[in-house]
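Researcher: I'd like a structural prediction for the single chain below. Treat it as a standalone chain; there are no partners to consider.
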Amino acid sequence: MRVLLTGHQGYLGTVMAPVLAAAGHEVVGLDSGLFADSVLGETPADPQGHRVDLRDVTAEHVAGVDAVIHLAALSNDPLGSLAPELTYDINHHASVRLARLAREAGVRRFLYASTCSVYGAAGDPDLSNLVGEDAPLRPVTPYAESKVRVEDDLHDLADDDFTPVFMRNATAFGYSPRLRADIVLNNLVGHALLAGEVLVLSDGTPWRPLVHAADIARAFTAALTAPREAVHDQAFNIGSEINNVTVAEIAEQVAEAVPGAKVRITGENGADPRSYRVDFSRFRAAIPGFDIEWTVKRGALELADAYRNFGLTKEDFERRFTRLAVLRAASDAGAVDDTLRWRR
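Model: Treating it as a single chain, here is the predicted structure.
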C-alpha cells in the first residue's frame, strides 16, 4: 500500500515511518520541516517526501496514494494557546482540506491522529468510570477543540469509498530520534536526570492516559489494513488501561527509573481541569490480538538510558526539544513568519 504520512519528520512520524515500511508499505512523507532538526542521537533515515506546509497541500501531493495517515499539526496545548487562530487554520481547516483532496483523488482510507484530550474535563467527580469513545467531548484548549472539529468534518466526508478513522491517542511518551521534551513523562525524566528532581508544577492529582510512541505506530499500522467494517468512520482510544495514571504516580515511576532523583510537587500551577481515565477496549475488539506493549515504568527506563547515552544537556532539553522554544527561536531568527511558514 502507498501511504502518505504527514508529519513524518515529527516526534511520532519519525517512529511510525519505519514501522510502516517494515510492514511492507511504501511510505511517502509530507512535512514542513519545522522540527526536522530536533534530533537526539543518530539522524533518522526519512522516507522520500514533500517539504510543504500543510496549508499549501495540493492534489498533486495525494495523487497515486492508497491511504493517508495524518499526524501533522501544531501538536500540544501550549502551542495551541499561543496562537489559537493558527491552531484552527493548521489543525482544523488544513486537515479537512487535505481530507477532501484525498477523497477526490480516490484515497480510500484516512487515519486521523486525534487525541484523548477531546474528553477534557471528563465530568465524573470520582473518575470511577472509564471514558469511552461515546462519552461527551469537553475540550478545554484550542488544540483539543481543533481535533473535535476535524472529527466532525471527516465524519461528514465518510462514504462507501472513503473511510476516515479517528485515532484518539493517549498522551504520548518514549524515545524518538526526534525527541519531544514537552510531554509529561519525557519532561519529568529529563528533570530527574539533569536536576536530580522530578518536578511537578500541578498538584499531581490529575489522571492522564499515556501511550508509547511505538505502540501508537503499531496501532496505526494495524488500523491501516483492518477490515473496513471494523474501523469505518469510528473513533478509537489508543492506549491501555494499565497506563491510566495520576501525574503524581508518573513522578514516582520516574524517580524509580532515575536512582537518586527526588519527587517535588509544587502545585504552583494549581489544579488541572484535564483529568480523565480512559477505556481502550474498543480498539482491541476491532483489531483482535492487538495490545499495548509499553508500560510507563518501562518507558521511563528507556528514556533515562537514551538521555544518558546521547548526552542530553539542559540547553537541549529546554530549547531544542521543547516545541514552543523551537518556534520562538525560528521566529526570532527571522526563519519563519508570523504564520509559521518558512521565509523564502
